[in-house]
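Sample 3 of the quickstart, ligand zinc ion:
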Amino acid sequence: MSALLLAAAAGATFIGVSARWNWWRRIRHDGLRTLMYHKIGTPPRGSRLKNLWVCTREFRWQMEYLLRYGYTPLLFSELRDVQAGRRRLPEKPVLVTFDDGYANNYEAVFPILKELGVKANIFLVYECMERHNEWHDPATEPWMRMLTWAQVLDMQNSGWVEFGSHTMKHRNLTALSQQEVRWEVSESKKRIEEKLGRPAIAFAYPYGAGAYASAVRAAAREAGYAFDFGIRQGISPWPWTAEAGPLKRMFIRGDDNRFDFHLQMTRGKSRF
Ligand SMILES: [Zn+2]
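Result:
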């Protein structure tokens, strides 16, 4: 009887663990992996969005993982060159992306990128630059400093980082009129290009909202971005065309462990 109970407990544990860690998913060798980060460092007191924070030590380990397993981190412009047939896609391409443009991307991330030789891309919220994350309710996520244009130019000039648009104000695009949506996606592109002196090639939908809403996505495509990114989990098909839908990403959570990261890289997903 106790042997039976033990077997049942073992079975339940196995099922539980296999639901949490999807080791049984098919290993993928194809496609484009895009990692999605937000903030690197220690969450401030009062943060209720702790999973959007990845600690600096784990971030460094994750970048070392990419290099150890032969991944080639790309810039948006390099991916565009691949799409245009001007550059060959490396064997294991990956995009490292950051949403929102926090100052900690310069202070905590940039030194690691330079030291290890990893390229990354940051989506900026134009009107929050040099200010704070004003779209957050401070009761949920304390306000913190965003990047300055001087920091952005320093990163751009280094050759390790490129920038895309994450709209003007980080509003939910599905809650706006079509005219406002067009302003959010087109005006931010134009203004970022004026500041940086080069094309803004990629766009990320705030909250992922509107990525699959036809009118919103049409506005993003018409603005002239080569790539648009949602927050749907997974590995994107490559070659990719806009008809395939927005590029997927892999959300790297603050409470992911190293096995989660490995599962994300090999399977595109680590949990349900
Ligand atoms: Zn965002």
